Amino acid sequence: MSSPDTPLISVMMSVYNAERYVAEAIQSILGQTEGRFEFLIVNDGSRDASGSIIDRYAAQDSRIRAIHQENRGLIVSLNRMLDEARAPLVARMDSDDVSRPERFAVQLAWMQAHPDIAVLGTNTDELDADGAFFPCSDFHPEHPADIRERLMAASAMCHPSVMMRRDVIRALGGYRAAFRHCEDYDLWLRVSERHDLYNLPDRLFLYRRSPDQVSEKHILVQAIGAACARYAAQQRRAGLPDPFEGATSLPSLDQIDAVLGSSGVGARMRLEVIDSIKYSPEAMSGGGLELMQAHLRDGGTKQGFWRTAGRMVKMGMIPQALTLSLDLMRY
To answer: Residue 152: what are its φ and ψ, rounded to 5°?
Structure first.
């Protein structure tokens, strides 16, 4: 198919070592009933066959613009595509997910009819690592007020399902380098302070759950970044400067108070993070237990921590459960 001279949508997909799923993801975009788009695909230094798969599809469909680069990470790749996009609307896509055929048609019609909406997500169903389908019983909040309320506790949008107004996102500075693995959550908070976000009730997207996905592998870093994003939003909404504006990385939790010139913020963030990761074996074995120990040593509340020790036993983390139990008795 020939590329439209003036695409209505620029699709943004970054790919890193996704040879198992990327062909299915690309096919789901090329199979959209609304075809007036360009498809930007960044091969972010993949070491597997992803690059050759992308090139094969690019040779078959001129709507695809393949961009090959050394590995620079998702945030750099997304901002590069925002800069290079030619359409007023940008649609996200991840290399292991699937868009249903009517996704773009429904989202485009909604964005054209509702110029006040800056970011439009959808509800989702799920796939497992082997492609088995699971209908999802959870719903993202639909209306802007409900989304704003949810965002102060957790994300309220499925990032790869969204369609966004490019000029709005670029005016806000795009994705911020400091918020690795939670760049979308930080962006939604910043957008929500000036514009409306909306989630369609339609399940137009199939989100893949896999032990290898970023949200599973980096859950502790993600939780710390989310706590920092919420704190920054609270400061902005109070009319104060964003403490992480221009930062390329975030301080560790034990450095937060010194960096911010505050007292007690680090301890509050640490408790938020602990609450976010307590159901994750990966996080608990990757630094989460140490956060709990530091919290207890500093005299923090013990409420709920015995239940966490019990969950560790059920997860087979017997030594960690014993360590936490001893600390609960010691402090």
So the answer is: -75, 0
